[in-house]
Automatic annotation (TrEMBL):
Compartment annotation: Endoplasmic reticulum membrane
Annotated Peptidase M48 domain residues: 112-225
Annotated protein name in UniProt: CAAX prenyl protease
Record membrane topology: Multi-pass membrane protein
Cofactor binding annotation: Binds 1 zinc ion per subunit.
Organism: Salvia splendens (Scarlet sage)
Lineage, top ranks: Eukaryota, Viridiplantae, Streptophyta, Embryophyta, Tracheophyta
Keywords: Endoplasmic reticulum, Hydrolase, Membrane, Metal-binding, Metalloprotease, Protease, Transmembrane, Transmembrane helix, Zinc
EC number: 3.4.24.84
All copies of domain CAAX prenyl protease 1 N-terminal, residue ranges: 47-108
Residues that coordinate or bind Zn(2+): 209, 250
Amino acid sequence: MDIATFYFGVLPWFWKRCGEVLVYAGFNAENEILHTLAFLAGFMFSLQDMIEEIILAIVIGPPIVAAIITIVQKGGPYLAIYLWGFMLIVSLIMMTVYPVLIAPLFNKFTPLPEGELRTKIENLVSSLKFPLKKLFVVDGSARSSHSNASNAFLLTLLASPLLSAHEDSAVNIFLQAYMYGFFKNKRFVLYDTLIQCNNEEKVVAVIAHELGRWKLNHTVYNFFIVVQHMVIPLFHVVILSLNLLSRAFEFQADAFAKKLGYAIPLQAGLIKLQTSTLTLGILLTTIRIHPWSND
């Protein structure tokens, strides 16, 4: 798919079409910032998402794109180092800002109600001394399965690090729970689809899997892996190696959940999630990072 994309000039063709749209709308297509924003906005499938993404891009995009262009123009022989440092800073800022300010624009986050499920989760995190501060449920079911499939196809077509890093159920179709926060301020987010498709024991098993990521420091490793997305020309060369490493992390997290006694419910929960989620099968074989998907 990647070879076909480059051979037939899909991206240059789309870039040219975006320039024509800008000219038609009365803008200057020679403006690299506007042209880039139009190019990125052109890959939206949902009208609501498109509007929200455009507004977000208008606020966040120009300063980041302008800074990158300035670094490229004035970086000289140390261009790569300057870009690396800039993207490292941006990544740290986005890791802090995205879950708190940006993600709520696209999904509704509500505290997990008091009950047996919350009690079981709190007991588990307490036994592992995980510094949980807040526990949310996000309306992942608001995204249609057709939207999931469309975005999965787009991810396959471009193998875009920007999309793969996006913590949205419409893009990362295997995501059902995640954590965020630095140091002692950790927060957990569960997708309502996870709760709807599984009983409490299976949900807690998935939580145990995610806690394995924290216990084994996968987040730290993944952060440094994300930095390699800057070297786009090398991305397609190293993507298979990165997937192997990501799969190894998944196996380690599964093994961690197994040690906690959640092997059977975790297996059943993952199978249930897989069968209830519309995926593209073989189409995602070369880029997926989760070992249980379609295996």
